[in-house]
Amino acid sequence: MGTTQLESVQEPKYWHLKTVLSEALDSDFAVGEVLPNERDLAARFGVARATLRQALEQLELEGRLQRRRGVGTTVAPPRVGVAVANAQHGWSGDADEAWQPVECTVGAAPAMVATALGVDAGETVHVVRRIRATQGQAVAAELLYVPASSVPELSVIDAASGPARARGLLRELHRLELDGQDRSVELGSARADDAKELDRLPGAPVLVVTTRYLAARSTVAVSVATYRADTCRLTFGDSGALEISHDAQERKAS
User: Fold this and answer.
1) Per residue in 241-250, pLDDT tens?
2) Distance between CA 17 and CA 111 in Å, rounded?
3) 102 pLDDT exceeds 80?
4) d(C-alpha 153, C-alpha 175), whole Å
5) What are phi and psi of 202, to 5 degrees?
6) Three-state secondary structure along the chain?
7) Burial (Cβ within 10 Å: 0-12, 13-18, ≥19) of residue 174
8) How far apart are CA 60 and CA 73, in angstroms?
9) Taking a C-beta distance cutoff of 8 angstroms, is the pair 85, 70 a contact?
10) Are the C-beta atoms of residues 191 and 182 closer than 8 Å to each other?
């Protein structure tokens, strides 16, 4: 990467720098290669380090760069493609499901979730934590909130906690006939627990997908799934199913 001085431009300086850096990533760097440190990059482009950080953060958000613990900023690989089925989100509890249960606990639902479930604030619900991995890489972490009324037979399950109880709860949930679901997607920042499981830094950009599952005219479960924004590209098909796709050409076109 040669020395380049930025000329006066109409667009914000960091945005112009982002474009220059993006072109350099395509021509001068390989996937996984570590970028020079911020001080060297800022000197080469004649910009303040604050401007450089803005450009790097934007490239990370677009999936071009990754910040890795103990390594630094590296060139990101093409986005990983996974598909998320619309039908009951893999609730059979089978061991070969794409979403793997990690834990099942009982706790108070966050205020937003309690409102969606139609339960009182502070009321305890079942909380299932699951991880989605593809090609050996964790790409999403989910918290599934289920009120006791949705799984009345759960008490017969012997396991007190852990993956076994999570799979039992999911099998009970799978018995329900869903009337429908609604889903929202928003940009967020990785919380400490999600960041650890997804190999991200706390505060890294993530996509938060919130899904409300409906049966018998009531909400039977709420899912809050956190996806790596640098890894996943979310698309919605005609069927309403949520898919996550990747392709190097798609990234250039998007």
Assistant:
1) 555 544 443 4
2) 41
3) yes
4) 11
5) -55, 135
6) CCCCCCCCCCCCHHHHHHHHHHHHHHHHCCCCCECCCHHHHHHHHCCCHHHHHHHHHHHHHCCCEEEECCCEEEECCCCCCEEECCCCCCCCCCCCCCEEEEEEEEEECCHHHHHHHCCCCCCEEEEEEEEEEECCEEEEEEEEEECHHHCCCHHHCCCCCHHHHHHHHHHHHHCCCCCEEEEEEEEEECCHHHHHHCCCCCCCEEEEEEEEEEECCEEEEEEEEEEECCCCCEEECCCCCEEECCCHHHHHHC
7) middle
8) 9
9) no
10) no
Determine the average pLDDT of the residues in 29-50: 89
Distances in whole angstroms, Cα of residue 225 to Cα of each of 115, 138, 140, 143: 18, 12, 7, 6
Lowest mean pLDDT among 17-21, 37-41, 60-64, 87-91: 87-91
Place of tokens 């103990």: 70
Report the candidate in 87, 81, 73, 79 with the shortest Cα–Cα distance to residue 40.
73
Say which residues have a Cβ less than 8 Å from residue 181's Cβ, sequence separation at least 6: 86, 211, 212, 213, 214
Residue 239 pLDDT > 70, yes or no? no
Facing residues of 219 across strands? Answer: 214
Does the reported pTM lie above 0.90? no
pLDDT at position 226, please? 93
What domains lie within the chain, and their CATH numbers? 13-75 (1.10.10.10), 82-253 (3.40.1410.10)
Phi, psi angle pair for 3, to nearest 5°: -75, 130
Non-local (6+) Cβ contacts of 34 within 8 A are 71, 72, 73, 74
pLDDT top residue among 75 and 7? 75
